[in-house]
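Lab notebook, bench 4. The sequencing result for the construct came back, and we need a structural model before the next group meeting so we can plan mutations. Quick request posted to the team channel:

Model the 3D structure of this chain.
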Amino acid sequence: MWYVYIIRSVYRPEQEYTGVTADLRRRIAEHNAGRSSHTSKFLPWTLVWYCAFPDKHRALAFEKYLKSHSGRAFAKKRL
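Done. Here's the predicted structure in token form:
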């Protein structure tokens, strides 16, 4: 399974990050350990939402959508 996820900074809740991974627990731990240059400035992170996909291509397509203008609006309103 592949997971699309949204995490939110605990101390800066306006900061969110959307990503995709095959191992959600490991990836969240990496974000909180500061191993991602995009998220290391806003530690710690908490998981807000995730969705499982049966294959990588669908997960990547949905992640791309969530990072688009309309996808961010959808996530803010619905997720």
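The chain has one domain: 2-71.
Will bring this to the meeting.
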